[in-house]
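Let us practice reading a record.
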Amino acid sequence: MFGALLLAIFGCSEAKRPGTPPKNLILITVDTLRADHLSSWLYGRPTSFVPTNEEERGKGIALAIDDLAGAGVMFRNAFTPRGQTTPAIASLMTGRSPLEHGVLKNGNVLAEDASTLAERFQDAGFATAGFTSNALLVAPSGLGQGFDVFENFDGEDRDVKVVTGAMKWLGTQDRDEGPPLFLWIHLMGPHLPYAAPSMLVGGAELNFGTMFTDPDYAGAANGSRDFLDDAYLNHKPLNGLDVNEIVAQYDGEVARINHIVRTFLQLYSGVYEATPAHRLDDTAIVFAADHGEELYEHSGYWAHSKSVYSSVLHVPLILHHPGSLTGRRVVDELVTLEDVMPTLLDWFRIAPQSRISGRSLLPLVDTYEALEFESRPAMSAWRNRIFSVRADVDGGSWRLVWNPENLQPEENPPGDYNIPELALFDVSADPKEQRNVANDYPELAKRLQAAIAEWLQNQDLA
């Protein structure tokens, strides 16, 4: 079955697709970025929006996250398999779940024999480079496999350093006559602590730390780890004004990363060159996050590693290359980070080298003759012990959390994080997943629990 699927996708190399295929690939991933805190996902604050006029759009300057979503394809319901960086990025890079590739938590190393996205592009003749600002995403993690150049940056302005490093590498490439390019940049973005510094934007200094905060707030709450970890560990109550102040600082971090992404794409595109190159015309862009962030929704928690809820598992996913994406522009189908690798291999007509559990998403967004898309629930897990599924069934949207051993997740920062043995949430009516309705819908809860059990049985375990 699986071999026939791959043959159908990759074997018919003569199948004509509409539009102009991209030559190069840029993958942009951002740490700790909630989908529902982006204005393109209808968030109330303009975190991913930059006002532009018709002239600026014509010059190709309108390249904020919202512009990528508007001109590309936005997957409104994309999910990560794990609320931690290394397992999530390993899934994106291999097309396999953490249970399959074996990276169950930060600190685990992706096996040398894993077939990665960068390796497949490298073997296909691409020049490959990765630039990251998360200390976990370094060569010893195993995630540097397949990159000709792989650099990690730390310290102040590390996300700016990533952009600078990427642009320096691009400057060494012959972008007209040289090989095609695969460039990955990973930005820390709104990761704790929430304390976005000011930044020059268009000649003016923008203070992202206070962009959305209330100037009249007189409380002590702030986005530092000391304050938030102390409040969480010691069960210190925060009122609505306190929470709003902290969330506003998180949103300021999101807005800052939006400007960094925009600046990088403007530099890459060449809109500031004497003769603008408009190099995005030949470049596919994938924008995603590794995971989101809990902002006091469950157990007073401000982080991500313990979470099995949508606040952390729901991530943005955008594909951008108007010249070759000729179908739908907004997709509500449930998709996962495991789907990124097979999508890109399909897009660039590169055959996989090993088993992939994700699916190509191109049948959802292209108008060429293709296989039907296989709808699935989105599965996630805390290590291999606590399980979570997001499913659209019986005309509704649901999340089931199953904690068969009644565990409390063991992650930093220390503190109680109580997960019920079984919890069902009606996502449409309760998007923050606060009210457990498992007793109201026992048969549905059993069906979703059985779906998790079937998924576990079908995992090709590492």
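A brief commentary: Confidence is low (pLDDT under 50) at residues 1-14.
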